């Protein structure tokens, strides 16, 4: 992406919006993996029922972790990250059989002005932690030990 007339501040704003959209898209394509990551974090952080204080932090961390795990390129060069900064441009790298499609999707994220609002919600329901995707009706229960996953549509 050329910096040129847009300026670095505008590029940073567009990149932040694109990163949010990319995390949402990646989570939507990998819901079960997201559930596993959330369960692992809940167990690791010893989240207890009806304690909502860290649920937003759990979700943010889980979505960042998911993107990092799904990407074949480490570091800032990966799609969904800040990109490699050159004198007047930012560059991203994609490799593998879906590289072209992923790069096209990333470019769409960069070109979009609307932020990627997450449809995922993590909440307690009757002493049970539930991850739901509000725009589809999908939900999955997460055991307090982080091990079990029970999906429902």
Overview of the structural elements:
The protein is built from four helices and six strands; from the N terminus they run αααββαββββ. By secondary structure, it is an alpha+beta fold. It has one domain (4-152). A four-stranded antiparallel β-sheet has the order 3-4-5-6. Strands 1-2 form a two-stranded antiparallel sheet. Helix 1 crosses helix 3. The protein starts with 6 loop residues before the first helix and ends with a strand.
List keywords for this structure.
alpha+beta, elongated, 153 residues, 43% helix
Helix and strand topology:
Layout: H1 7-29, H2 31-44, H3 55-70, E1 84-85, E2 90-91, H4 99-111, E3 120-125, E4 128-133, E5 138-142, E6 149-152
Antiparallel strand pairs: 1-2, 3-4, 4-5, 5-6
Helix pairs in contact: 1-3, 1-4, 2-3
Summarize the structure.
Helices cover 43% and strands 16% of the residues. The protein has four helices and six strands. The relative contact order is 0.21.
Q: Mean pLDDT, rounded to whole units?
A: 85
Give the fraction of residues assigned to helices.
40-55%
Q: What's the total number of strands?
A: 6
Strand content: 15-25%
User: Radius of gyration, Cα only, in angstroms?
Assistant: 17 Å
Low-pLDDT runs of 5+ residues are none
User: Strand order of the main beta sheet, please?
Assistant: 3-4-5-6
Quickly give the structural class.
Answer: alpha+beta
- Domains, number: 1
* H and E string: HHHEEHEEEE
Total of DSSP H or I helical runs spanning 4+ residues: 4
Distance between the terminal alpha carbons, to the nearest Å?
39 Å
């Amino acid at each position: 992406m050329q910096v040129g007339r847009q300026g670095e501040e505008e590029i940073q704003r567009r990149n932040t919006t694109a990163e949010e959209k990319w995390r949402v898209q990646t989570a939507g394509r990998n819901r079960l993996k997201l559930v596993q990551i959330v369960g692992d974090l809940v167990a690791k952080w010893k989240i207890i029922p009806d304690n909502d204080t860290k649920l937003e932090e759990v979700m943010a961390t889980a979505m960042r972790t998911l993107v990092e795990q799904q990407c074949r390129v480490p570091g800032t060069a990966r799609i969904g990250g800040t990109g490699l900064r050159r004198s007047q441009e930012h560059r991203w790298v994609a490799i593998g059989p879906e590289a072209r499609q992923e790069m096209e999707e990333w470019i769409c994220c960069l070109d979009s002005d609307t932020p990627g609002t997450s449809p995922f919600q993590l909440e307690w329901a009757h002493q049970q932690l539930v991850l739901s995707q509000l725009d589809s009706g999908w939900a999955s229960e997460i055991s307090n030990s982080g091990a079990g996953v029970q999906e429902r549509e």
